[in-house]
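Lecture notes, part 5. Sequence design as translation. It can be helpful to think of inverse folding as translation between two languages: the language of shapes and the language of residues. The source text, in structure tokens, appears below.
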């Protein structure tokens, strides 16, 4: 069809521009670990007048897109906040829908040429798995086992997660692993965090979409020190290079600034 030609030309041009931006960004220092609070699926659905279920599907598609982008940019580790322990308080229908999406998503991710295997990504699902339905638990275990030896990058899916639960488990494990009466150190706790156990480097950038400025119990221990925190107005399903690009430029500017500072 004649009408499709200009459209595909424009798409092709947009792709070239994106690749150029990626190439340009890759020339600078890259963060080793980015954490995302993927917020705004429900508000996005309301704004567009579509069912919440579709909002979550679009959010899932956005996650895949952003992950591909991060791995293409050679970000070593990405953590995504998929589901909070608190989210179990939502309607049964919505929770069931998210669980189904997660299970299908995990199964898809692990196929031969898909996101994880194609990019050499090790998957860690971190959080309180005892709360997951058995079929989802099984999909999680399968995906983790399959990607266990991948070492180019790491994906932490926080599901169902809260930072306080992670810290409590870490302190508990540290206490159980030490001699009676011995004093626990920060290092003991740090060593026992789910993220450390999954080989994650320190968090450089913390991003939350959809205009909410709360930390919501996500990577609190991990992002207490040198982490840059960014809030963006964009709803998660619409998040992409347009939002991530400026964040990375800001990161690079700060890294360069620090380096110059050291020299003088
Ligand atoms: C990962 O490596 C271990 C040890 O070399 C091996 O036993 C296991 O089968 C490997 N797993 C996969 C999925 O390749």
């Amino acid at each position: 069809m004649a009408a499709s030609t200009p459209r595909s030309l424009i798409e092709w041009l947009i792709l070239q521009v994106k690749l150029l931006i990626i190439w340009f960004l890759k020339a600078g220092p890259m963060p080793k670990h980015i954490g995302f609070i993927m917020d705004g699926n429900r508000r996005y659905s309301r704004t567009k007048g579509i069912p919440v279920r579709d909002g979550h599907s679009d959010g899932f598609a956005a996650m895949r897109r952003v992950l591909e982008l991060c791995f293409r940019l050679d970000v070593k580790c990405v953590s995504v906040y998929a589901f909070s322990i608190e989210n179990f308080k939502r309607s049964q229908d919505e929770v069931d829908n998210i669980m189904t999406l997660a299970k299908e998503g995990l199964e898809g991710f692990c196929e031969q040429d898909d996101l994880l295997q194609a990019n050499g990504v090790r998957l860690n699902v971190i959080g309180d798995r005892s709360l997951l339905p058995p079929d989802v638990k099984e999909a999680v275990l399968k995906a983790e086992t399959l990607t266990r030896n991948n070492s180019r990058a790491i994906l932490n899916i926080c599901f169902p997660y809260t930072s306080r639960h992670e810290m409590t488990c870490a302190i508990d494990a540290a206490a159980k692993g030490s001699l009676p009466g011995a004093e626990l150190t920060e290092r003991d706790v740090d060593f026992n965090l789910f993220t450390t156990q999954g080989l994650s480097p320190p968090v450089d950038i913390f991003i939350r979409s959809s205009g909410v400025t709360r930390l919501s119990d996500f990577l609190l221990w991990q992002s207490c020190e040198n982490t840059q925190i960014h809030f963006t107005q964009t709803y998660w399903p619409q998040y992409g290079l347009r939002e991530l690009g400026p964040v990375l430029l800001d990161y690079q500017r700060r890294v360069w600034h620090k380096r110059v500072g050291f020299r003088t």
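The translated text above is only one of many valid answers, since several sequences can fold into similar shapes. The longest strand covers residues 121-126.
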